[in-house]
Amino acid sequence: MILGIFDYLIIGVYFLFVLGIGYYLKNSIKSSEDYFLSGRSISAWVTGLAFIAANLGALEVMGMVANSAKYGILTVHFYWIGAIPAMVFVGVFMMPFYYGSRARSVPEYLKLRFDEKTRGLNAISFALMTLLMSGINMYAMGIIFNLLLGWSFHLSIWVAAGIVLVYVFFGGLTSSIYNEVVQFFLIVFGLFPLAYLGLREVGGWSQLAARLPANLTKSWSTLSSASGNPMGIEWFGMIFGLGFVLSFGYWCTDFLVVQRALASKNLNAAQRTPLIAAFPKMIFPLFVVLPGLLVIYKIPAATLGSNYNMALPLLMKEYFPTGLLGLGLTALLASFMSGMAGNVTAFNTVWTFDIYQSYINPHKDDRHYMRMGKMTTIVGVLASIGLTYVVMYFNNLMDYMQLLFSFFNAPLFATFLLGMFWKRATPNGAFYGLVSGIVTAACHYFLIYKTGFIVYGSEMTANFYGAVAAWTVCFLFTILISLFTRGRPDNELVGLVYSLTPKQDRSKMPLYLKPGFLALVILALTLALNLLFW
Amino acid sequence: MDIKLPLGLIFTIIGLLLVGSGLVHAGEVVQKLQFNFNLWWGAVICLFGLFMLGLHFKKSQKKTH
Questions:
Q1: Number of Cβ pairs closer than 8 Å across A and B?
Q2: A 475-534 residues with CB below 8 A of B?
Q3: Does the ipTM surpass 0.90?
Q4: What is the predicted pLDDT for the residue at A305?
Q5: What is the pTM for the complete model shown?
Q6: Which residues, including other chains, have CB under 8 Å from residue A376's CB and lie 6 or more apart?
Q7: Average pLDDT, chain A
Q8: How do residues A357-369 score in pLDDT, each as one tens digit?
Q9: Closest chain A residue to B19 measured between Cα atoms?
């Protein structure tokens, strides 16, 4: 791909703005709450778009297009089953405890609800994994822009990381959130043309569907058995593995996205954050699944080969002239850089409060922790770059990352579910239940799936069932151990558990602002979409 | 800082750049896409940017009064 002057100008304008936003915000950072949580002052529509943008990393966007090119319309399940219900749940039911408890992070909630060892397990595992994800993100960016444009792998890593460092160092979470909102609109403006131009060329959806194999254009009717669809999965695994355990495990417990809601200006805004995010999430298949289907139609199999991750850039090359190409590539670049920024802001918060303040240097004043946060930003970015080079030498780490997340996220969701809705869940129950869930996930993968003891339709199916097993074991063990161990007294759990938290009076709130009403609208629309593409 | 200001500015500029590419490279764009999509899409993005700027200045005026 050769870029023209307008393409470079668009990329240049983006770089200028992200640096400018970070620099402009530096004078508004006066406390650690400003730096790590934006002073809990951001409007719901901003945190809502940042919530979804934090999830829309370039690996996610490119990966979903690749998935669609490989599996067809089944990829919509990652959105309509694998995200929307969980986003609704976390907004309506979990945000009152996350936000209401004034916890500064997900691990801190675990400390308030249970104890230090539960917090420590989550904090350390999350900190390591989020840094590794940042490294993987940068590695993928370097490779893709080297392949597409011939940019130096090393230069693009260091320049992109340097820009992220500047804007996060100066502007903290607010800078990261504002740039995520810019990224969101860049993705919409950069990817919508693909869907429009592709459909226009084919002659509409029904013409495209007619040109593709039937099992690639029906989202539910091929799920009665694993052999009936290219993903090798049936409806039970899809609903309970992806739709329940993995999806809820990610959206309800991953601090990278939850942090955006914690930056909201009040509880109502925090609850509306994931609900507002659910609307664009619902229509996102238009930007990623439809292009993936267009890849099947447009790009010869010989050109694509087995390198499905290049599907999106190849489609851009087919449809985008100069100018539009610059916009599309800027959208990808923004996604990579926001991905890194999101991981770094989540890491520096968890490090500063849940590791440094808890175990290394407690009882310091707020300015000290704010300075620590800024230093950690530098360390976090440098560590991410270091991990980029580690991934370069061990690039099957990328394949294992999603697996690793599912080892921890699936049982963690059981811990949160019981923690927030069952006051009898005890600290020892939570900790040992969580450990048993993680061990179950690992054992299922290595001892059951990899040995062929159970044969699954695909690796994805194996991961879905592994997540169900891990969640179930954690859930049952937490209950069992809790019944025989001491819990925290009720007065320490007010605001942390459903039965001990006063309900908000929303009688005077307009209907369209009530989380429950928004949730019903979202679920109804999602159901309609599922039926439309049955 | 109200986010609508940088949001409005960046997309107004990007929209204008896209419109510019549609004017300067009209032949190439039309040959590839059969119509000057850059022109139209650039205008849409520019309008979005201006809309955001409009909301920002309206909010600033309310604060002044």
A1: 82
A2: none
A3: yes
A4: 67
A5: 0.91
A6: A347, A348, A351, A352, A356
A7: 87
A8: 999 999 999 999 9
A9: A323
